[in-house]
Amino acid sequence: MAERRRTGACVALLLAAWIAPSIAAAQSYVDRNLSVSPAARDGGRPIVIIAPVQPSTPPQAATPQQKTGPIGSYASDAPGPDIRARNADYVTQFRVIERIPPGATIRDVAWRYGVASKPKGFEAVLCWQDAGTCWSVTEAGSGNTAFFNGKDASRPFLLYYRVKGSGHLPGGPIKGDMNQVIVTYDVPG
After folding, report:
1. Cα distances (Å, whole numbers) of residue 52 to 14, 49, 81, 136, 164
2. 3-state class (DSSP) for residue 40
């Protein structure tokens, strides 16, 4: 009987050691992504959660495919906001400036953004439709990606900036430049 209790206690300790990190990681994720600040509950500025946004490679299904059908594209330009404070979200909204045929899907997205400087803690993410599908562009002020391939081409893109950290921004506000996305899409049919 004592041997059975000792074995049961060992199994319980092993299970606790195995499950506890998973629970802690899940709670940490919830705390970072789903907690609501008192200001948001009291009708303050809505929170746009973009952290943690980790760059990832596009899924295999999203790799560029050579299609022989018609393609279209549009370019959208918008001024970037000045970054005035740390830990605040700054958004550039890119409008879809032409009529996109129904069923058109994204083939490639190119971007260009500029800021006067990128202090420590600077982050930039390019998002399709909302902050749910994002690609980190922090390291590259311009480029292109197949990450959004297959998505609805008629939906807008957004560019989120932020500078994480504490204290004042070095040198004062950071001037935002003109930003651009170019969306190339496949036309059905």
Report:
1. 31, 8, 22, 10, 12
2. helix
Q: Is the pTM of this model over 0.70?
A: no
Reference 33, options 56, 48, 53, 49; nearest CA is: 49
Count of beta carbons in the 10 Å neighbourhood of residue 176: 20
**32-47: burial string, b at 16+ Cβ within 10 Å, e else:** eeeeeeeeeeeeeeee
Give tens-digit pLDDT for 126-175: 999 988 899 999 999 999 999 999 999 999 999 999 999 998 888 889 99
Task: Kindly tell me the number of DSSP H helices and DSSP E strands found in the chain.
Answer: 2, 8
User: Rounded distance, CA 160 to CA 50, Å?
Assistant: 8
